[in-house]
C-alpha cells in the first residue's frame, strides 16, 4: 500500500521522510536538494556555521528545487537566534530544533509564518511543544547519532509520546536503516513519518570526505559508542582514535576556544574543530557522529536510489498507519 504524505502546517512532503540535519557541514544544500526533489524534506545542518554561510546555502537550495527545504539548528548554539532569523530571511520552509528547548522560537515562527518542528525524547517536552505551537514533533531515541536526549530505545518511548500528541504530526527518529523499519514505525507505532540521517551520509551527494564515508562503511557494531560532548549531552559516535583517547580519560581540552559557538561549553574539547576534522577526512583525530545501526549499511548510493529502495520496501509491507490525520483534527 502507498505511504501517505507527510503534512506539516501548510507543507506537504509526498514521501513521509525527513533527512536529518547533520552539522557541521555534513548536511548541506548538496544533500538537501536531491532529498527534496525526491519528495522528502531536505534539511541543512545549521549549527556551527556562520549565519551568512547558512543564509547563502539555503538560498542555493531554494533556487534549485521546488521541494521542501528545512534547517536544523541546535538551541545550544550561542548564535541560535541569529541563525534562525538568517534562515527565515533566506526563505527556509521549516525550522527544526533540539538540544535544548526554546519557548521564544514558537513566537518567531508564528510571526514569520515559518513552521517550527521540535526534537524531543520525552512525553513532557512533546506535550509542551504542541501546547506552545509546534507544527510537528520528532521523537529521537537512543539509536540516533550525535547528541542524545535519552538512553531509551525508540520503540519504548515512541508509544508514550504518541499517547499525548494528537493534533500535530509525530515523526520517529533513531536507528532506522530501511523501508521495512519505516513501515513498521508508521503502521504499528503510529508514526506519521520518519527522520533518517546516517543512511544519507552514505549517499553520493553527501558533501563529506571519502574517508568519512569509509569510516561508516568500516564500522562494526562494537565500533559505535557513547561519548561526551561540550554541549552537555552524551553523543553517539564511531570509536575513532580521538574518541578512544577521550573515553580513556586523556586530556583533549583546548586552552583557548577558537569558535565560541556554544552558549555553555565545558571546553574538554572543541566540538566544532573535531567535527570539521572528520568532515574534511581526518577521521582519526575527528569526531564522527553515527547512528547505532550504521554497521548494517554497506553501500554508498545516490539519494534517488535510497528513496527508491525505502519506498519499495515500505510499501511492500505497509497496511494502514494510525498516525495523525489532518482531516480529523
TrEMBL record:
UniProtKB keywords: Dioxygenase, Flavoprotein, FMN, Oxidoreductase
GO molecular function, one term: nitronate monooxygenase activity
Coiled-coil ranges (or none): none
Protein's UniProt name: NAD(P)H-dependent flavin oxidoreductase YrpB, nitropropane dioxygenase family
A Pfam family matched in the record: NMO
Gene3D superfamilies hit by this protein: Aldolase class I
SUPFAM superfamilies assigned: Inosine monophosphate dehydrogenase (IMPDH)
Amino acid at each position: 500500500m502507498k505511504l501517505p504524505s507527510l503534512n506539516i502546517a501548510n507543507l506537504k512532503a509526498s514521501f513521509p521522510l525527513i533527512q536529518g540535519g547533520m552539522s557541521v557541514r555534513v548536511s548541506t544544500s548538496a544533500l538537501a536538494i536531491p532529498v527534496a526533489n525526491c519528495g522528502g524534506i531536505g534539511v541543512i545542518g545549521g549549527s556551527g556555521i556562520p549565519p551568512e554561510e547558512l543564509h547563502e546555502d539555503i538560498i542555493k537550495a531554494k533556487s534549485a528545487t521546488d521541494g521542501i527545504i528545512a534547517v536544523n539548528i541546535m538551541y545550544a548554539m550561542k548564535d541560535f537566534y541569529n541563525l534562525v532569523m538568517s534562515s527565515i530571511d533566506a526563505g527556509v520552509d521549516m525550522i527544526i530544533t533540539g538540544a535544548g528547548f526554546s519557548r521564544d522560537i514558537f513566537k518567531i515562527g508564528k510571526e514569520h509564518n515559518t513552521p517550527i518542528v521540535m526534537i524531543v525524547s520525552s512525553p513532557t517536552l512533546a506535550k509542551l511543544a504542541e501546547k506552545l505551537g509546534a507544527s510537528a514533533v520528532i521523537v529521537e531515541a537512543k539509536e540516533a547519532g550525535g547528541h542524545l536526549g535519552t538512553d531509551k530505545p525508540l520503540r519504548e518511548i515512541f508509544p508514550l509520546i504518541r499517547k499525548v500528541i494528537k493534533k500535530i504530526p509525530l515523526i520517529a527518529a533513531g536507528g532506522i536503516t530501511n523501508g521495512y523499519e519505516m513501515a513498521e514505525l508508521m503502521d504499528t507505532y503510529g508514526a506519521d513519518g520518519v527522520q533518517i540521517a546516517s543512511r544519507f551520509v552514505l549517499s553520493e551527494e553527501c558533501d563529506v570526505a571519502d574517508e568519512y564515508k569509509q569510516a561508516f562503511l568500516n564500522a562494526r557494531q562494537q565500533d559505535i559508542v557513547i561519548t561526551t560532548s561540550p554541549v552537555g549531552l552524551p553523543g553517539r559516535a564511531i570509536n575513532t582514535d580521538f574518541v578512544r583517547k577521550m573515553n580513556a580519560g586523556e586530556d583533549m581540552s583546548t586552552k583557548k576556544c577558537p569558535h565560541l559557538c556554544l552558549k555553555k561549553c565545558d571546553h574538554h574539547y572543541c566540538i566544532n574543530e573535531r567535527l570539521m576534522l572528520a568532515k574534511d577526512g581526518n577521521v582519526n583525530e575527528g569526531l564522527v557522529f553515527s547512528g547505532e545501526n550504521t554497521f548494517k549499511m554497506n553501500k554508498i548510493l545516490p539519494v534517488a536510489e535510497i528513496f527508491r529502495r525505502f519506498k519499495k520496501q515500505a510499501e511492500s509491507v505497509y497496511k494502514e498507519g494510525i498516525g495523525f490525520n489532518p482531516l480529523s483534527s
